[in-house]
Specification:
By secondary structure, this protein is an alpha/beta fold. It is built from 10 helices and 13 strands. A 7-stranded parallel sheet has the order 3-2-1-4-5-6-11, with helices on both faces. Strands 7-10 form a two-stranded parallel sheet. Strand 1, helix 1 and strand 2 form a beta-alpha-beta unit. The N and C termini lie far apart (about 35 Å). The mean pLDDT is about 95. The structure holds nicotinamide-adenine-dinucleotide and uridine-diphosphate-N-acetylglucosamine. The site of uridine-diphosphate-N-acetylglucosamine (UD1) has 22 residues, from helix 6 and strand 8.
Length: about 300
């Protein structure tokens, strides 16, 4: 098939592009390189540098594609709190542009990168797909709106839509250098270079971390399993790890103590996050295969080769 991957120069998108190419598909990437990098786009993919806020551009690149994997977004919770107008424009209007293009260009299916952030602060765990959605950040609100758009497209316009609610994804190529970077990429990078890490709050907050390869597998299933259209799925491991435990494991792998300073808890932060992945297992055939520790070892090995 021919696939369009928006955000394909980013962390998750570039791994997805790599797998699609390996499986013999033709891949086009639309990315404005705001957080993604040209170097992340594997050879063999067609890179179009452009913005999903530009509806005409999205329409043009969607032409001839059977599936769109929509990964492009302002991905950071704090960035959405600092500038909610920008994240709204990218995450909601940009998603609508993708869906309008899919309709006009007769794309078969859109697979949307949603987020655990849509569940918000409501404390019941684990989160199943029928749990209350109560986002507490512009980012979470935008992902929830995007997901509703995607899941309404099959009924309204006959374009299949699947929403994948990623929990905390980690792995090689996640950029550790921005103040908003995913916590594992920051901790692993600092541990490798012997620098201190900052823990926002007491470090007992927890997340359901999932290795990027498992997320890629979920995307391929979401693009192909016939009954998946109109459905949302949690994509995680179904286990939670506290930041303190995470630091302990990283220290064990790198073989040295990591010094940590505590800073005030981050605004808009969720305390605990844990997924029930029963639906993805039974309906998609999703089976996460990389443990947090195995994924950390692979990430640290990758960073070791780069340093
Ligand atoms: P990333 O920042 O590495 O990737 C996002 C990509 O989108 C980047 O390449 C960026 O340049 C591109 N982009 C941003 N704005 C754009 C625009 N206006 N037009 C075109 N391209 C644009 O982040 P990621 O972690 O790979 O995230 C991929 C997707 O997964 C996002 O939708 C994100 O919200 C979602 N997600 C990520 C996680 C996670 O833990 N990393 C968890 C839940 C959901
Ligand atoms: C992450 C994703 C978001 C996704 C969500 C789904 C990133 C950048 N964000 O948000 O796109 O929708 O998961 O669950 O990938 N922390 C520290 N020190 C640091 C960095 C972070 O203590 O140096 C703490 C944070 O305060 C937070 C936890 O680590 O409590 C996780 O933070 P982060 O990795 O940014 O992820 P989320 O906010 O959960």
């Amino acid at each position: 098939m021919r696939a369009l991957v928006t955000g394909g120069a980013g962390f998750i998108g570039s791994h997805l592009v790599q797998r699609l190419l390996r499986e013999g598909h033709a891949v086009r990437v639309l990315d404005d390189l705001s957080t993604g990098k040209r170097d992340n786009v594997p050879e063999g993919a067609e890179l179009v540098v452009g913005d999903i806020r530009n509806a005409a551009m999205v329409d043009e690149v969607a032409g001839g594609c059977e599936v769109i994997f929509h990964e492009a977004a302002v991905v950071s919770v704090p960035a959405s709190i600092e500038d909610p107008q920008r994240s709204h424009d990218v995450n909601i209007q940009g998603t609508l542009n993708v869906l309008l293009a899919a309709r006009r260009q007769k794309v078969r299916r859109v697979v949307f990168a949603s987020s655990a952030a849509i569940y918000g602060e409501e404390p019941t765990l684990p989160k199943g797909e029928l749990s209350i959605t109560a986002p507490i950040s512009p980012y979470g609100i935008e992902k929830l709106a995007g997901e509703h758009y995607v899941l309404s497209w099959p009924r309204l316009y006959g374009v299949e839509g699947v929403s994948l609610r990623y929990f905390n994804v980690f792995g090689p190529r996640q950029d550790p250098r921005s103040p908003y970077s995913g916590v594992i990429s920051v901790f692993a990078d600092r541990a490798m270079t012997g620098r201190e890490v900052s823990i926002y709050g007491d470090g007992e907050q927890s997340r359901d971390f999932v290795f990027v390869e498992d997320v890629v597998s979920a995307n391929l299933l979401a693009a192909t399993v016939p009954g998946a259209s109109g459905r949302a799925f949690n994509i995680a491991r179904g286990e939670r790890t506290s930041l303190n435990a995470l630091l302990g494991t990283i220290a064990k792998i790198v073989g040295r103590e990591i010094s940590a300073k505590h800073e005030p808890a981050r605004e808009g932060d969720i305390r605990h996050s844990l997924a029930d992945i029963t639906r993805a297992r039974s309906e998609l055939g999703y089976a996460p295969s990389v443990s947090v520790e195995a994924g950390l070892r692979r990430l640290i090995e990758h960073l070791g080769e780069r340093h």
